[in-house]
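Section: Multi-chain targets

For targets with more than one molecule, the full set of components is provided together so that the structure can be written out for the assembly as a whole rather than chain by chain. Components appear in the order listed by the source. The example entry contains two components.
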Amino acid sequence: MLNAHGKDVHQCDSGWVPVYVDQEKSISLMSIGFLLERPDDAVVWRGPKKNALIKQFVGDVSWGDLDFLIVDTPPGTSDEHISTVDALRPFNPMGAVVVTTPQAVSVGDVRRELTFCKKMGLPVVGVVENMSGFVCPHCTECTNVFSKGGGEELARHAGVPFLGCVPLDPLLTQSLEQGKNFIQEFPKSSAYSSITSIAQQILDSATQGS
Amino acid sequence: MLNAHGKDVHQCDSGWVPVYVDQEKSISLMSIGFLLERPDDAVVWRGPKKNALIKQFVGDVSWGDLDFLIVDTPPGTSDEHISTVDALRPFNPMGAVVVTTPQAVSVGDVRRELTFCKKMGLPVVGVVENMSGFVCPHCTECTNVFSKGGGEELARHAGVPFLGCVPLDPLLTQSLEQGKNFIQEFPKSSAYSSITSIAQQILDSATQGS
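Its structure, encoded as tokens over all components, is:
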């Protein structure tokens, strides 16, 4: 999605050097994908090995001076999540941005993730509803493919901010497929305004918190 | 999705009694969801506890005489997957039905899951492509919301059967939201024919294998 496949992680005196997506080094990346010999290799690891690597990704990477460190976790409330929260605790993390899709089965899962954040003492920055309606590019009618309003209701029920909806947008998928910069390429697309509004709210929340 | 929330698991002489979705006991269910006190409870478990429960779900549930045992796993190739394959190995499982969505990031993940199956000696029944195009109910034009053809290409590349595509279908979501029987309720919907065709191929594959 960030056009970084095939890049390598190098070692320096202060640890692993992350992969940079551009020459300005505006985004630094670290992923287990960069450490595999072949892109098809399966990482057949039980919890303890995953936990050790998460700790290394936080502590042994030469991140430099970052504005934000974003950890994209799998769904759930297990090893990856416990280890990430434990590893970041000394750095007083801003909190979790919790993403759901609108339908009840997804909202139910994410409700349990909010319970997890509470149990672990991790603040919740807010809830995002993804795959939220599809505007047909042929007739401009909107269809709620995966039901409607689940994310907003979840946020209200849990007493946390609702950050907004991101619609299903074929232009967004197309950008991600080709490793293009969606924000630059499609400023008029339906997902653009919702993504920038969500990002702005997270920035505002960071400024208030600091 | 099967209208079984709030039901309880009971104990009998031969183990846990699964939850039945209808009076004919045509489908028996077991899920950690039935063992939680409250539906919002998060299961904050590391691998070893999950592995022990998976073993119990296979060995300590009074399943009776089943035609098929279907295990719905999370994405990935970690504790849940290793433990499930290990627990089922003595029963000579038919294999994995591997589900992807069409776009490259998803296909890449699922390619690693096929490598996992190979490593573990688990046969692959076939690949299903989900969220495969959306037919607008207003104008009947089809949009490939998440790119196109990734599942079929993956199957060909891996040398395993391609079982078919399931389109994005709001009627399917609606049925699952309300716990209704989609096959009975919407025999004319776009997802109906693809789902029944995939099921038939799996049945055929089971008959050939036995």
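The two ends of chain B are 30 Å apart (CA to CA).
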